[in-house]
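Entry type: protein chain
Record version: 2
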Amino acid sequence: GRWRRCWPAARGVQARRAPSMTFEPRAQSKSPAETAQPVSVPGYPFGSVTPFCVDRMCRPVIYISPIAQHTRNIVADRRVSLTVVERTDSDDVQAHGRVTCIGDAVEVEDDRDAAERYFRHFPSSRKYDRTHAFTFFRLELLRVRFIGGFGEIFWLEPAEFSLTNPFSAVE
């Protein structure tokens, strides 16, 4: 399809002979799970669902409002994880490929490229900042857990996982 292997496009994934799998940011963005440390229950992870896209270096970018619990959690403790699960026809979730990106959520300021990429995938979100002061955050990767299915599991470093996105903000 139109989307190439931005995730996992890493040399490390290919070198480890991972299965041929494409994580499509647009298709996957409807239900990734984001986890942060909750403000109201200290020390326990707090899962949430949020759309995302990837920037020009294939790092996850989210667009969130300060009224949301997950935003307050990120502001209090920027350590987060984002899990993206491959869509398949199988009902065996353990057989699905997935990646968990672990890192720090950092507010993105003045990055029109990231904003245009996000708005291209989620056009209705362009008006969100008019009512709830939405802000972009980028996940600065620390490590990535790759699971290509049962028994195909390994850790990746950010340099092994993130490659330059071959598409412009408008493609």
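Comment: Strands lie at 33-36, 46-49, 53-54, 60-64, 79-85, 98-107, 135-147, 153-156.
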